[in-house]
Amino acid sequence: MRRRIEIAFSEQKTIPEKAAVIDRNPIIPAGLNPGDKIGIAAPSAFFDAKRLREGVAYLEKKGFRVFIPADVFYRNGYFAGSDKRRAGHIQDLFEDPSIKAVFCARGGYGSIRILPYLNLDLIQANPKIFLGFSDITVLLNVFSTHCGIVTFHGPVINSFPDTEPADVDFCISALRMVSDIELRSENGLAFNDGVAGGETVGGNLATLCHLLGTPYQPLFKNRILILEDVNEPPYKIDRMLNHLKFAGCCENLSGLALGEFTDCCGADELYRIVRSVFKNYDFPVLFGLKIGHGRFNTVFPVGSEAVLDTEKKTLTFKIRDLKDLNVAPLDNEERR
After folding, report:
1. Cα–Cα distance between 38 and 49 in angstroms, integer?
2. Which residues are identified as catalytic?
């Protein structure tokens, strides 16, 4: 298997052509239950092996089997191995029928570098749960937009020890895919009150901006955009939001939901920045969701149908309804 993948790598172009966009109902992977096998991937930065084992111990305690590729601990500068090696891990885990879900070890930086080496047709043909956040925002949105697979924004393995235990437990419970997922605003801030529906896109603001203008840019039209970030001063948040706006990403948004902006600015200043950037838009905007780089990081699906309600202060992801719509993987004619 590895030799086949390495041959495929050698045929990749330096600058890939525009990736196909899936135009049909999203595919929700099969739910995760005790006894299932979880594969660990490291698409980005190198990580602390001790913290990884702590996260793995939690999963094993919950009754899951965990597969850690032997060379996932390799280090190449500040990456967890070479770009080709990291992409190879992703493809191997998706292609392995014994793996039910792929959990990422850490974010940091590096996911965008492996995109030219990924066979998106292979990933689309083998849909399964894919979990991560921060730099993993790249892969969450690429797999959602260009493979048609619902992915999951939530804790990486190395962040399990720092995440509120109830959020980690909720993450594992939510991945069973037996009920809808509801996020509730903690501060109740909102403007342009209303109800909006659409598929979700987003994650880390800075990382999402890095995809703009590339062949892997996600779709924004009729979507609910969800954003969070960490360690960014207010002026950079302002700049990145304006980047999204001037790139045309917000012209036909259904709604905007903001998570935590950890060590960035206070809730009032964030509200002021967001309102100033989007003052001429009429889509509903909700603040205060417990997602991001803080102690609270509630899992949510990327690419799933959702409803944002500023009066109820909720963002609800429709899992049960979409599961009934799941169909076989796409053929080539359904990719455009």
Report:
1. 17
2. 134, 228, 293
315 membership: H or E segment, kind and range: strand 314-317
- CA-CA distance, 226 to 256, in Å (whole number)? 6
- Model pTM score: 0.90
Which uninterrupted H or E stretch holds 129?
strand 129-132
Domains of the chain from N-terminus onward: 2-178 (3.40.50.10740), 181-321 (3.50.30.60)
CA gap 167, 159 in Å, rounded: 11
Residues 40-80 have pLDDT tens digits of: 999 999 999 999 999 999 999 999 999 999 889 999 999 99
Q: Which amino acid is at 331?
A: D
Give the pairing type, strands 305-309 and 195-204: antiparallel
Token pair belonging to 233: 């001063």
Alpha helices in 62-102 (DSSP H): 83-95
Sequence-distant (6+) residues with CB within 8 A of 81 are: 42, 71, 72, 74, 75, 89
CB contact at 8 A, 47 and 105 = yes
Q: Give the model confidence (pLDDT) of 117-169 as tens digits.
A: 999 999 999 999 999 999 999 999 999 999 999 999 999 999 999 899 999 99
Crossing angle (nearest 10°) for helices 234-246 and 267-277: 30
